[in-house]
Specification:
mainly alpha
Amino acid sequence: MNATNTVMRKTWTSQEKERFVQLYKIHRINFDQYVYHFENRTLSQIKSFYYNQKYNNRQLENQKQRNEDFQSSILKAYSQSFDSVSHIAGNLTDDADTIHYFCDL
């Protein structure tokens, strides 16, 4: 806290994050217990950290799923295009055989 009794914002350190994870394994969302382990954090900051991490993880999972869906649709479209090209190429080969047949007459 500073001279006006307001809490200064600061980024969570990696040690604080690790401590939070360990405490979460024990206390879950009983955040009142966390305050005793974070002397420079308020209850509000601890709750905010938890909910921000939860939100960010959910966003990350959603983005991962969207990427997988996109890759799947690209592969499906590529496969369908390849099948179409193969079919056309097969028809062209048949046409070329027909042309050669008539030319040989």
